[in-house]
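Customer escalation, tier 2.

The customer says the design service returned an amino acid string that "doesn't look like it belongs to this structure." They asked us to rerun it and document both sides in this ticket. The original structure tokens are below, unchanged.
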């Protein structure tokens, strides 16, 4: 298997897992079995990647139905659908400002009155 194929497959698996398309006990499953499980869960793009690019590229060292560019686009589409958590930005809170009272004679601030 080439490093490119391994990296793209790893990205596809992370995206599919983040979307809940893969079973928790997947360590013994083949790429085709993982793709079939993802298809059963409603997304057949992993199967397209396996049959059209991953297996031909990794084991046959031949060009499959998908080009490298098409495989990259397919994985990017899977990754784009991962629910990104919204990051709540802290609300800037200005401390209450107290108006300084200035001395009428010299203009210096006077101590706060309570």
């Amino acid at each position: 298997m080439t490093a490119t194929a391994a990296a793209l497959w790893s990205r596809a698996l992370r995206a599919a897992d983040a979307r809940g398309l893969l079973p928790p006990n997947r360590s013994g499953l083949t790429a085709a079995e993982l793709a079939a499980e993802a298809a059963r869960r409603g997304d057949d793009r992993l199967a397209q990647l396996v049959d059209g690019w991953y297996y031909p590229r990794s084991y046959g060292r031949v060009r499959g139905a998908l080009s490298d560019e098409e495989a990259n686009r397919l994985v990017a589409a899977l990754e784009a659908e991962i629910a990104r958590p919204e990051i709540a930005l802290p609300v800037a809170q200005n401390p209450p400002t107290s108006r300084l009272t200035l001395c009428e004679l010299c203009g210096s601030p006077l101590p706060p009155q309570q």
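Tier 2 assessment: The sequence is consistent with the input. The chain has a mean pLDDT of 83. The helical segments are 3-18, 31-40, 45-60, 68-80. Sent an explanation to the customer and offered a walkthrough call.
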